[in-house]
Automatic annotation (TrEMBL):
GO terms for biological process: DNA replication initiation; negative regulation of DNA-templated DNA replication initiation. It comes from the Bacteria. GO terms for cellular component: plasma membrane. Signal peptide: none annotated. This is DnaA regulatory inactivator Hda. Pfam families: Hda_lid. InterPro entries: Hda, Hda_lid, P-loop_NTPase. The lineage of its organism: Bacteria, Pseudomonadati, Pseudomonadota, Betaproteobacteria, Burkholderiales. Gene3D superfamilies: 1.10.8.60, P-loop containing nucleotide triphosphate hydrolases (3.40.50.300). The gene is hda. Residues 161-225 form the Hda lid domain. GO terms for molecular function: DNA replication origin binding.
Length: 231
């Protein structure tokens, strides 16, 4: 097998509720799993806390849609203005609301009103929204900030190094890898700290170990990264 193919880090797996590493966010994960039609959830936290992962995991449901702040307001407006007798998506996920301009804010405001009006009917849908700070601290119009806090609100905490160490150790054990703790410690210290990218790096290291016939050590990890950068 071509060595470079083994060095190419696999794309991170698609975000799902099953591969979300909860850490101290287990309550938020449980609420996301249980989110039903007629309910809404707002998730907030700093970059890297997993809010987009959770939203994309929710949007993987059948009949769900995912919208981020980079999208035009047309889809939000279209959903909000859908005829009241027409079916809505089972779930609408709206990400990065802190980046929304006035047009997008107006569209999301209308969507929240539509969500509330339909909540007790057979046309109810779930609404999941995420931003980088608590509702009342967002740089948004006041009536929209109020609506973001209408139902469930969870602050997401970033994974600690101990959480990442535990998650990567579990991934290694699932693969049957003999992995010394110092290998993961080195990864956490010298590589990107995003857990999904770390998981992809571990996958690449596994394949590189098989290709070279060498055990997984920090020396092998450094050799793999050096070879990848020089190719």
């Amino acid at each position: 097998m071509n060595r470079q193919l083994l060095l190419d880090v696999l794309p991170a797996p698609a975000p799902s509720l099953n591969n979300f590493i909860a850490g101290s966010n287990s309550e938020a994960l449980a609420a996301a799993r249980a989110l039903a039609a007629g309910r809404a959830i707002y998730l907030w936290g700093q970059a890297g806390c997993g809010r987009s992962h959770l939203l994309r995991g929710l949007a993987a449901r059948s009949g769900a849609v995912y919208i981020d702040a980079a999208s035009g307001p047309q889809m939000l407006r279209q959903l909000a203005q859908t005829d009241s007798t027409a079916a809505m998506p089972a779930l609408v996920a709206v990400d990065d609301v802190h980046l929304m301009d006035k047009a997008r804010q107006a569209a999301l405001f209308a969507l929240y009103n539509r969500w509330r009006e339909s909540a007790a009917t057979d046309r109810a849908f779930a609404l999941a929204v995420a931003g980088d700070r608590a509702p009342m601290s967002l740089p948004l119009r006041e009536d929209l900030r109020t609506r973001l806090g209408w139902d469930l609100v969870f602050r997401l905490e970033s994974l600690s190094d101990a959480d990442k160490l535990s998650a990567l150790s579990a991934q290694a054990a699932d693969r049957g890898l003999q992995l010394a703790p110092e290998v993961i410690t080195w990864m956490l210290t010298h590589h990107e700290r995003d857990i999904r990218k770390l998981a992809s790096l571990l996958d690449a290291l596994d394949r590189y170990s098989l290709a070279t016939g060498r055990p997984i050590t920090t020396a092998l990890l450094r050799a793999m990264l050096a070879e990848s950068q020089s190719s």
